[in-house]
Structure formats: C-alpha cells, structure tokens
C-alpha cells in the first residue's frame, strides 16, 4: 500500500506537467495564428465547446490557453459577448514568450525595426550608467558571459544564453530597478534576433569584439566610451539583421 501511495504521489506532478504543456501549446498555436493574421483584431473566436472539440483538448486546457492570451493583451473574453481578438496596440509585444512566437516564423520587418529602436533608446544609456555604477561582481558576470560566448559561439544555444546573460548583467549594473526590470524583454529580443540571424544565414561577422568593447569601457568606468560602444554594437547588429532578412534561409 505504501508503494502504491508513493507511485500515486510520483505520478501526479507528471500529469500536471502534461496538462501544463497542453494549454501552453494551445496558447502558442492560437497566439501564432493571431500574430500571423489568421485571426485579426476584432475577430470573434468560436465558442469554448466548439474550439476544444476541434482542437481535441479538454475545455479546461482550452480555457487556460485563452487566459494566457488574455494576460498578454491579445484577447478579451466576456460572458455573452464571447472571446475577441484585441487591437495590436493592446498586445504586450515585449512579453518574452510572445517574442518567441513572433520569431518562430517570419517576423514582421517593422517590428524588428521597433525592437532595435527600443534597444537603441535603452541600452546606450544603460551602458553609460553601468560604467558609472557597476560592481566588481557584476563586471565579473559580464566578463564570464563574454568568455562563454567566445567558447560556444552565437550559433549555439549556450552561446546565445551567454549573450543574454551579458545584456542582463549590464542592465543590472545600472543599479536602476526600472531599467533592470526590462532585462527579460531585452534578453528575449537579443536571443530571438540572434537565433533568427543564424537560422537565416551563417553570418561572416563575429559580434564578440563589439561586446568586448562595451565591456572594456564599463570596466574602465569610461561612460562616454561605454555609450558609444553600445551604439556601435546595435548599429552593426541591425545591419546583420538586414543582411539576414535579405538572404534565403540556410539549408
């Protein structure tokens, strides 16, 4: 009996994990359909019963998926009025998961421009603040991240994770809670744009020296050089993205 009880206890988290994966997969499917224009702003979704039957999932799983999209500002659901797609202006486009959905296919060129414009507003100033306020521990995190980027390369998941750690640590080094709160969104934008560039084309230019220039300026507490180096990093990164968008995918 004790064994049976233990087995039951062990199975429950697995079942819960399976249910979690199902509703997240449905949210991804529906969210991607909205992002690609299959479901347009103002469109009314089918009823919960019909949708769950069509997707061959439980009503609970479908309902949880809809709740995820409501939280991201993509859907509005009201009794009797139904579930409707909200205008793009309401979407939380900096949500890390939504960024992943966008870059799973062919991302919108205007949105890529928007991301780089946002980064060009945030990150040069963040680099300047980091040069002025960083701690030795934060500098060590950035330095190790660059070493990992060099070791693994940005065409690998480990290399891209190191790239994200660098930018995350830089924002933390600003000692500004509002800027640090953007780390998840900035990190996701960095990761997904880098993955997209390497998926489209094996780029000949190595961006590691651009990152090292920023890190060296922060280490030297040279605020002007830190800002200028980050401006140049972003300019070159956007140019790389333009090349990737103009080329066919690898393979």
Structural write-up:
By secondary structure, this protein is mainly alpha-helical. Helices cover 72% and strands 3% of the residues. It folds into 2 domains: 89 residues, Orthogonal Bundle (Arc Repressor Mutant, subunit A); 151 residues, Four Helix Bundle (Hemerythrin (Met), subunit A) (Up-down Bundle), CATH 1.20.120. It contains 11 helices and 2 strands; from the N terminus they run H-H-H-E-E-H-H-H-H-H-H-H-H. Strands 1-2 form a two-stranded antiparallel sheet. Helix 4 packs parallel to helix 9 and helix 7 runs antiparallel to helix 9. The protein is elongated and about 60 Å long. The N terminus is likely disordered.
CATH architecture classification name of the largest domain: Up-down Bundle
Our Rg estimate from Cα atoms comes to 22 Å
- Global morphology: elongated
Unreliable spans:
1-17
CATH superfamily membership of the largest domain: GntR ligand-binding domain-like
Number of domains: 2
Topology:
Layout: H1 2-35, H2 48-55, H3 59-71, E1 75-78, E2 82-85, H4 96-104, H5 109-133, H6 136-152, H7 157-172, H8 177-180, H9 183-200, H10 208-219, H11 223-246
Antiparallel strand pairs: 1-2
Helix pairs in contact: 1-3, 2-3, 4-9, 5-10, 5-11, 6-7, 6-10, 7-9, 9-11, 10-11
List keywords for this structure.
disordered N terminus, 72% helix, two-stranded antiparallel ribbon, mainly alpha, Arc Repressor Mutant, subunit A, 2 strands, elongated, 2 domains, 11 helices
């Amino acid at each position: 009996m004790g064994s049976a009880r233990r087995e039951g206890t062990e199975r429950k988290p697995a079942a819960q994990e399976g249910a979690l994966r199902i509703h997240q997969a449905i949210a991804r499917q529906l969210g991607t359909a909205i992002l690609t224009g299959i479901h347009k702003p103002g469109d009314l979704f089918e009823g919960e019963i019909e949708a769950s039957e069509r997707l061959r999932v439980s009503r609970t799983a479908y309902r949880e998926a809809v709740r995820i999209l409501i939280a991201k500002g993509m859907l509005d659901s009201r009794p009797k009025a139904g579930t409707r797609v909200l205008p793009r202006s309401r979407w939380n486009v900096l949500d890390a998961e939504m960024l992943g959905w966008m870059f799973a296919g062919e991302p919108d060129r205007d949105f890529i421009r928007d991301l780089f414009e946002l980064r060009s507003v945030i990150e040069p100033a963040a680099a300047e603040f980091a040069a002025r306020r960083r701690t030795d521990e934060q500098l060590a995190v950035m330095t190790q991240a660059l070493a990992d980027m060099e070791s693994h390369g940005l065409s690998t998941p480990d290399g891209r994770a190191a790239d994200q750690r660098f930018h995350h640590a830089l924002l933390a080094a600003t000692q500004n809670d509002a800027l640090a709160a953007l780390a998840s969104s900035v990190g996701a934008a960095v990761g997904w744009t880098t993955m997209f560039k390497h998926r489209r084309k094996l780029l000949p230019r190595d961006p590691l020296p651009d990152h090292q220039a920023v890190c060296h300026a922060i280490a030297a507490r040279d605020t002007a050089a830190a800002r200028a180096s980050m401006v140049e990093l972003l300019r070159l990164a956007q140019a790389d993205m333009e090349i990737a968008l103009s080329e066919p995918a690898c393979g």
